[in-house]
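User: I'm curious what two different proteins look like when written out as structure tokens. Can you demonstrate?

Assistant: Sure. I'll show them one after the other, since each token string lines up with its own sequence. Here's the first protein:
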Amino acid sequence: MSERWTPRRTLAALTAVFAIGVALRALPLWQSPLPFNPDGLVHARNAHRTVRTGRFPLSIMATDDLGFGALLAVAQSVTGVRSVALGQPLIAAIGTVPALVAGALAARTSRQLGLAPGRARFAGLLATLLLAVEGIYLYRSMPVDEQTPGLSLLAIAVVAVVAALWSDDRRWFLVALPALLVIPPLHNLEGFVLGLTLLVLAGLAALPWTRSRARAPAALALAVGFWAYFAAYNVGLARLTPARIIQTGRLTAAPGLLVAWLILCLAVVALVSRSRPRSQRALLAVPFLALFALLAVNAVSPVFPGTPATARGTLLPALPLLVPILAAVWAYPFLRRAPEANVATVALTVGPLALVGFALSAALTPAYLDTAVRTHWFLHLPVLALAAVGCAVAFRSVVPDRQQVRTLVVCALVVTVAVSIPVAFAGLSLHPYKGVTTTGEFAASTFAHEHIDGSWTSDNHLVRITNYHSTDISGTETTLYDWITNPDAPPPNCPVVTKESWVTVGAQFFPRPPAMVASDRFRSLHHRAHRVYHGGSTQTLTVLAPRRMSTSQC
């Protein structure tokens, strides 16, 4: 194996894997040229107005929209292509970068463990492939959204900070500094997770098993400095401009609980560091098995009231991910021989885990469920990187001379993460939130926004995408939801934008579960109204106006 993975072959293989990752994240373009997620339309709107006017439209932006808005605006200015069309191809490449970061982390860890250069390159290539094709991670790394570039920037910042503090090569700060500066304007969640992770690093630097306590003050100063910058940026921009801070209440509502989770995680890390390998593996498996158990329980009954239950089509493809997780858990005790890699992997895992634990225990509301789900994506990179390292270590110590066994193991590991690829493109059949916006949906919502006087009603998706045109949205989902969920309710007494998929997969009412319309009620709604618009691309969309519409609004 060491002789097979020469630098040239490894580079060629990495290029092929990166191309596969980009192709997977560009697949939504086969369904629609628009951004994969409706929020991407909002970012495209902000970027287009920025290019057109020469200034950010801060009155309709959040403080953490500036980073991603600037990226899209620069890309539009350089290419001449509007952000609404450029966003998905651009994010297909950006969303694959975390796979390269995972590969670099796995290769660097393998070298620190004393593996041969060829074997270390194999570990890096395997980690890149695993993260590039993992379907659950794919679902989060292809939206035109701020978190997509943040997934790699956070990992780069943490790995570079660890390298600077634990290897005494201060040049690594030059790598970490751009990411540390960019993340607060990019996304609040990334900033919060990075702040927690830096505090974890400060705690790790103070533990006895680190090589020197001299780096603990530097790690603590860096964590405090980042939190100060993070707060100053958001509060300062909100006070000096019309930009607003969003979604902070859920994270600041119970600071004591968050600190408690952070302390608990650090205490568990300290306990793990003093345990035997078997105990280490048992302790590390607990939080991951707990998350899978929670996912299974949610398939029976929603843990968070009012939110969708886990679909069987999501649960079954997710279960094979236990294989790379257990491989990573098995490999962790070997990191004791590589302090720097140990610290980087632990920090990248413990920081997000603390926030996930906080979100799951703070309150059973959709907002905290959203926080837990969006935070757990940060765990995929370190876990799959460590799984690849474990595979390389096992090949050296367990099956050193069995090529067929090693090939089967690699294929099985790749299949366990790739089997969930269809989940990323399933839409409302599995997810409460529809990612793809077709040109027909965009045209119908545009017609309603521009030609209907007064309010109108539709599902969450069609109302949401009108944000591309204006923040003054006249559409509402409440009237339609009341009619769909109440069989005795009369039809909406205002214009309705309908989709034929409402009778099959249902209408979107995120974060509530999709709601299906009975076929007879859907036909009756059409028969009792005037059809003022009829179109669509992959499905039929219609704008209906009641035959006798009162002066009351939706």
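Here's a second, unrelated protein for contrast:
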Amino acid sequence: MNTTEFLNITSLIVPERTAIVFDGKRFSFQELDERVKRLANALAGMGVGAGDRIATIQVNCNENIETYFAAAKLDAVYVPLNFRSHPEEIEYMIKDSKPKILITGERYVSMVDGVKENLTSVDGFVVLDHASAEGWESYEQLLSTSSTEDMYPMGDEDDLTMVMFTAGTTGSPKGVMLSHDSFASYILANVSPPELESEEKNILTVPLYHIAGIQAVMAAIYGGRTLIIQRQFEPAEWMTLVQEEKANRAMMVPTMLKMLMDHPEFEKFDLSSLEVITYGAAPMPLEVIKRAISKFPGAFFINAFGQTETAATITMLPPEDHILEGSEEEIERKLNRLTSIGKPLSDVEVRIVNEGGGEVDVGETGEIVAQGPRLMKGYWNQQEATAEALRGGWLYTGDLGYFDEDGYIFLSGRAKDFIKRAGEMVSPEEVEQVLHSHPFIDEAAIIGVPDEDWGERVRAIVVAKIGATIDEEEVMAYCKDRMASFKKPESVVVVEELPRNPLGKVLKRVLREEFSYPLED
């Protein structure tokens, strides 16, 4: 299915239902559909046609959603750029994707103007926020003077619809090429079309340059859910929006969930309307999800695992595995499962393989590979990287993990982050889970330190809880009592905070650059 049908179907079934709540504005699905048609006509008037790229640089807003669907109507390709990137990275992504039109928020105009002469592919510059700038078209002015005549795409489900750049934590960002079917295959299998009798409201706070944000938008548009958009995550504003709008659903990353519960005014807000909280994008510490289950007693939790390269979720830990009830043995089993990413979805095949591509035994660590209709088409302009990631119809994710005897998948870390100590493989995530259970440790990350005798040795980078003092020897002893001796940290470094990307993933590269000095025996 072409993704333009998501909005077409919903605007016909529930035209008057509120589609978007953002910044004091409300748009019905009918109004959203009309704005998309106007924008599509405006872009067509600027020369945009099939295959042309349209890039955006802006925080979460309704215009990002409108731009995607307008681009899809023209068989053009949407390119959402990470607004938090350095100017050099922004310039690189624009030069790499070669958009014909660039749409940005007012705050990014001066940055773009500084490199305009280098952006030779861009024919039109459009500014948002009801702003005006020399050499820029006004977004709202374009809509106000454009036709509402519908535009009908010719592309099918296998055609390219989006290029989404990866975070670029190592090297230059890579543009992931996603087709209409990359999204439709997941949505049609997992989301029901809108119902006249029931309404859902979904608060959107994860950024729309990230696959989790785009997946949430696609699901909401097709499912007839109201999207309550937050520009960027801020705990007090998030809780205010949930309380005032009675949001039913939320997508969170672990750091966001932790920031909410740590907020001094958390208990003052009525968040009881929340029925489903989906989390993912970064590993969830066991202590954080246990606390969240108790703090949100009326909500069902879902752990969704996927990558930009998979366009959507490929494995899921469902709500029933978050209900900590039953016998001691059952609760213990569920607590263990909370550290997993669940099981593969029914329309995706997932295997765990060794370096030769053969499947490993239950309990044995290998690389997670996936096969199914939602996988990326490849990396934009990077044939070698595409060939490395897509082999024999399988996506090699770069994530390491293992199956347990019940079919649940447990992550062991990224392949590049695994530590090899004297021939033994150490999973950073396993050690980090133990450290997160320490009563004085708030956050933790594990890196390998090069060593002439051992190859690598294990170092813990930790953040102390407020008012707590970390004793290095005590922490190492704590870990030794809970895991094999070769896995325990051999040194502990206390820092004020861990470097993270905008979605909460710890930047191990940054930690290795700063803390990979040799251990002293």
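A detail about the second structure: The two ends are 61 Å apart (CA to CA).
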